[in-house]
């Protein structure tokens, strides 16, 4: 079954998993298998006035809708592009007196689209909204309560002159959002800013070691002529060689967790038992729970104690980060590393989590040398665990490269930036803003490296002068969330 731009994939029934997607032709790493615009999408409640409601880019100054005073856009181009989807919402918000929550807004946008186009197959979609999984029957008590509250709020917001839908159908739509909502990120890919529904992507099954990745592309409305504008979309990209007939899989969760934890998370959020190879055979679990090798191997009791200490410390770190107490975070990380280092192996996930936080926060505090040391150890561990073409690995290697560069460790910095660039070319593609940023850094560090190799003394003198004249670029403030996860779950 293929449709508008989807000729290279087909929907099939996957044994024990329901529907899945299969490749119709061969793909190589970095190939875009398909790109899909959102069926409907909304900005998160907390960010409605700093993110464009059309392309989801973060902008300094946004243009506000004069009618509802709720929606914001980059410029007239984005505002015009949004009108078809915003028209009904605009008058409903004015009538209601205020905008409802993101969940209600997304459900309403889906319903208005169904009112306009019907609930059959939309253009370019392999399945209809009616056929998407809702898992309402699997909801626990708490989720059912939330669902009832959402349906009530929706009915209060939904205009009487719009098409009226039955309670069961409205519940189906909320179930679809809960199970299939996809996280949309800003143009740097570092912050989750919204949620959207992409029916074709929903058909891709999960695998902890997938052959595809999904990247959100904000599109480009900056070209002078609108014929060169590109639409906001997700791209399904190949991570490894895929042959015709192979199932296309993506990972719904971060791999950096032992199989038992990943399975628990998948069961809780997506209502299925993961039967992928990595979970069945617990591949890489030994690395993620590694302990120090050598003469005096630590006792099981000591390992248990250190892991418990690490878990408690991570909770304290989260609290301190929430309050912006970054020096306290550093102190907690150093204490924890002191306890971990004699006991845990260099690929142990508890050690890697602390190294990751320490390097990020120290970079923000401009303590680059210590940050670089932790970043290097983190990357060395990640390289043994992650798929070589993993987007999260690429982003971590990029951060480590920038940290080394800031620390004046130009050789290691340039090497890491090149490594990150090679990964992101596959996961994000050459035209993604992150890859373009990285290309600029790659050229800059290459130039600096040549200067360093010709005359080390002169390189450091020039670097010193440059740092005196310009305020050193501050690293972005550490965020409390990890890289946005693939599918958005309402907490």
From TrEMBL:
The keyword Membrane does not apply. It is found in: Cytoplasm; Nucleus. SMART domains: SET. CDD domains: SET_SMYD1. InterPro entries: H3K4_H4K5_MeTrfase, SET_dom, SET_dom_sf, SMYD1_SET, TPR-like_helical_dom_sf, Znf_MYND. One of its GO terms (molecular function) is zinc ion binding. It catalyses: L-lysyl(4)-[histone H3] + 3 S-adenosyl-L-methionine = N(6),N(6),N(6)-trimethyl-L-lysyl(4)-[histone H3] + 3 S-adenosyl-L-homocysteine + 3 H(+). Keywords: Cytoplasm, DNA-binding, Metal-binding, Methyltransferase, Nucleus, Repressor, S-adenosyl-L-methionine, Transcription, Transcription regulation, Transferase, Zinc, Zinc-finger. It comes from the Eukaryota. Residues 7-253 form the SET domain. Residues 52-90 form the MYND-type domain. Pfam families: SET, zf-MYND. Gene3D superfamilies: 1.10.220.160, 1.25.40.970, 6.10.140.2220, SET domain, Tetratricopeptide repeat domain. The keyword S-adenosyl-L-methionine applies. Its main location: cytoplasm. One of its GO terms (biological process) is methylation. One of its GO terms (cellular component) is cytoplasm. Its EC number is 2.1.1.354. Interacts with HDAC1, HDAC2 and HDAC3. Interacts (via MYND-type zinc finger) with NACA isoform skNAC. This is [histone H3]-lysine(4) N-trimethyltransferase. It comes from Rhynochetos jubatus (kagu).
